[in-house]
Amino acid sequence: LLSTVYLFIAFTCSISGYKDAGMSSDVIVVLTGGTGRIETGASLLSKGRAPFLILSGVNRESDLKSIFFKTNIDVDSKRVILETSSKSTYENAVEVKAILKEKGFKDIVLVTSNYHTKRAFYIFRKVLPSDVKIQTHPVSTPNFDENRWWQHATSIGIVVMEFIKFYWYKMRLYFYTTSHLNN
Questions:
Q1: Which residues lie below 8 Å from residue 175, measured CB to CB, with a gap of 6+?
Q2: Most exposed residue of 43, 93, 99, 129, measured as fewest CB within 10 angstroms of its CB?
Q3: Mean pLDDT comparison of 19-23, 29-33, 65-69, 77-81, highest-scoring range
């Protein structure tokens, strides 16, 4: 029990530890599914942070018009790659890995919600080749106050779920890596 409490405290202290370095890259990778992520990725693209944008985890029936119809964001379709196969953060990383290999990208900006950044970065670091540089760009969301998350039931629920998922993936990827090294 004490170990779990210690791990939880360490986890919560690290949530706000991810910052944006602000450096340019080959591609911006947005993990869809959270408020403000796509808009942030499109904004980074329009500001020249990278020449390309991958939207990972997009619904199979979606196109750029349906994704951006509620906004006044105009993106060049030649600069946006829609990844439609993934349904989880791990699958996002696997599918993005294939795109990076195909396109020769070696430096990404990973855009996701601030509370999701730790898990997403961990999974991407485990899945992507070690020569791929990963920069993070955490997105603040209205349903999570990273500075006072413990004061809101919704935010507490988000942190608890992220904690569980982070350590579940940590074990899963440890055993996956170990079993593949032994074969």
A1: none
A2: 129
A3: 29-33
Q: What is the pLDDT of residues 12-42, one digit of tens each?
A: 888 878 889 889 999 999 999 888 899 999 9
Cβ atoms of 97 and 54 closer than 8 Å: no
SS3 per-residue string spanning the chain: CHHHHHHHHHHHHHHHHCCCCCCCCCEEEEECCCCCHHHHHHHHHHCCCCCEEEEECCCCCCCHHHHHCCCCCCCCHHHEEEECCCCCHHHHHHHHHHHHHHHCCCEEEEEEEHHHHHHHHHHHHHHCCCCCEEEEEEECECCECCCCHHHCHHHHHHHHHHHHHHHHHHHHHHHHHHHHHHC
Identify the bridge partners of residue 107 per DSSP, sorted by sequence position.
Answer: 133
**Residue 16's Cα: distance from chain center in Å?**
14
Cα–Cα distance for residue pair 101/110, rounded to 1 Å: 16
